[in-house]
Specification:
By secondary structure, this protein is mostly helical. It contains nine helices and no strands. Helix 1 packs antiparallel against helix 2. The longest helix has 39 residues.
Length: 193
């Protein structure tokens, strides 16, 4: 469906440019937008590589196990089915840490690794467990304490204060996460999951 929407917007733009005689301006805008997208991607790549490297070092040094132990009470409450599994709790913790730092793209491979570890121990086969559903919801509505990617994008676009929106991000991401957790726990209580 999204492909049809994009196609419709592109076709409408070309049609409007043809009708108004601004086809040259449309062409220039397309090239300028493509160049801006490449420049933004390259600037974000450095930030993402640095933080992914840091998270990999944390995993190899055993910091993830320490974090998993530190956050164990919260993780055990949220994911009671993985209470005794240090590997899964460590992977969940790494994903949550990446999301705390606002590294959505870096959190994705960590989240996939956590889901694969959960799936290996899934007694229900192809049906997701409550923990898997909750993890996906938490990953989607994550709390961002230090939105590094957002700050990098704002800085690349010329913002004088790339971290100037921290209070708003804290409030909205905390509100989204709490609402998502509440909904999941209510649905778990009704045995919908």
């Amino acid at each position: 469906m999204i492909n049809y929407i994009w196609f419709g917007m592109i076709a409408a733009s070309v049609l409007c440019a043809l009708c108004t005689g601004r086809l040259g301006e449309l062409s220039a805008a397309v090239m300028e937008g493509a160049q801006g997208a490449v420049e933004l991607s390259i600037s974000l790549l450095g930030s993402m590589c640095a933080w992914l490297g840091f998270l990999k070092i944390a995993e190899k040094s055993g910091l993830t196990n320490l974090l998993a132990e530190a956050f164990s009470p919260v993780i055990n409450w949220l994911f009671p089915e993985y209470k005794g599994d240090r590997e899964i709790k460590g992977k969940i913790c790494m994903n949550i840490s990446a999301n705390f730092l606002g590294l959505g793209n870096a959190a994705t491979p960590l989240g996939i690794a956590a889901m694969q570890a959960m799936q290996e121990k899934n007694p229900r086969g192809d049906m997701p467990t409550k923990g898997m559903v909750l993890f996906v919801v938490m990953n989607t509505a994550s709390l961002q304490l230090l939105p590094i990617n957002m700050a990098a994008m704002r800085g690349a676009c010329g913002s004088a204060q790339p971290f100037g929106i921290l209070p708003e991000i804290w409030l909205t991401s905390l509100g989204a996460l709490l609402a998502a957790l509440l909904f999941c726990k209510i649905m778990e209580g009704k045995s919908c999951l």
